[in-house]
Amino acid sequence: MKNLILTTAALALTAGIAMADTVRMGTEGAYAPWNFINDAGEIDGFERELGDELCKRANLECEWVKNDWDSIIPNLVSGNYDVIIAGMSITDERDEVIDFTQNYTPPDPSAYVALSDDVDVAGGVVAAQTGTIQAGYIAESGATLVEFASPEETIAAVRNGEADAVLADKSFLAPIVEEDGELKFVADDVPLGGGVGMGIRESDGELKEKFNAAIQSMKDDGSLNELITKWEVSSTF
Asked: For residues 165 and 121, is the Cβ–Cβ distance under 8 A?
């Protein structure tokens, strides 16, 4: 265990020192409207537009890297990219492994979606994406948690009867419910997390401060709220 910790720390330090002028932005590309792959095969969404603007304000050249959610933190630590910008809520547990910028959206309410109004979300089977704050909440709630690698699989689990309901960010679920004639919001919203921020290696303090300053400048001039409203990802600041 000690060797593993030392190796991880060494990798993070080396990656931070070796960081080139081009900053690699890691995202999932599967969580619309936050981030997704458009018809042209390019990363798109709220975080693509936000990330490009933050890089511009921080005077950084940035390129985008797609990475599956379940390995997104380990691959940041090992140096596959320099920043996570993927709808990641700031939590104490994650903050023990990586660092975060200030939040670029306020805490987004989580919501339950099911096929029936009478679903028992407190004692039934509830789906969530692996490694999310929603999965952690369900595991401690008394309900039976079923985890899936992608957000699309959590929705499919409700549709095919593997789960009674799904718990996810309301901004992700809202357009799905609107387009689907059978799925519906049930129970009360659940406030979770400390808002969404950029994940950065703990050794990259200078990069963190550059993005903190860029985020703050967008908060100050109102452009961040404009983007949040445009993409309907959360409440505004």
From this structure: yes
Answer CATH for 110-190 from 3.40.190.10, 3.20.10.10, 3.40.640.10, 3.30.70.100: 3.40.190.10
Main-chain phi, psi angles of 79, to 5 degrees: 95, 15
Read off the DSSP letter of residue 66: E
The CATH class, in words, for 2-106+194-231 is alpha beta
Q: Nearest to residue 133, comparing CAs of 163, 158, 164, 170?
A: 170
Per-residue CA distances from 4 to 33, 81, 115 (Å): 36, 20, 45
Structure tokens at 103: 């939040």
Q: What are phi and psi of 115, to 5 degrees?
A: -95, -15
Alpha-carbon Rg for the chain, nearest whole angstrom, is 18
pTM: 0.81
Express each pLDDT in 82-96 by its tens digit.
999 999 999 999 999
